[in-house]
Amino acid sequence: MLSEVVRSAAREPQIITIRGEEKAVVLSMDEYKKLSPPEKPTLFEFFQNSPWNGAELELPERRAEPMRNINL
């Protein structure tokens, strides 16, 4: 019986009711993917796709400063 619902969902969304009240919808995987937000890229992928990927940056040299004493 579930397999029939899944096969029907491949053609059009199938509404599931309980005591006449609409409770859920079974969608095809293609329809689900259309409605789902795209996957977020990893931080690495984000930087790889950045328009500044490969840009040359001139960074000032760091000054050598003595370490601070911190009381923990």
How is this structure best described in words?
It is built from 3 helices and 2 strands, in the order αββαα. With 72 residues, it is α+β, with helices and mostly antiparallel strands. It has a domain at 2-48. A two-stranded antiparallel sheet has the order 1-2. A hairpin with a 2-residue loop joins strand 1 and strand 2 (21-26). The chain starts with a helix and ends in a 24-residue tail after the last helix. The mean pLDDT is 90.
Fraction of residues in helix: 25-40%
Shape: elongated
Major sheet details = 2 strands, antiparallel
Q: What topology, given as strand order, has the largest sheet? A: 1-2
Could you name the ranges where pLDDT drops below 50 across 5 or more consecutive residues? none
Could you report the average pLDDT, rounded to the nearest whole number?
90
Radius of gyration over alpha carbons?
27 Å
Written as H for each helix and E for each strand, in order along the chain, the element string is HEEHH
Count of distinct strands = 2
Structural class: alpha+beta
Strand content: 15-25%
Terminal Cα separation, in Å?
A: 66 Å
* Number of distinct helices: 3
Would you summarize the structure shown here?
With 72 residues, the chain is α+β, with helices and mostly antiparallel strands. It is built from three helices and two strands.
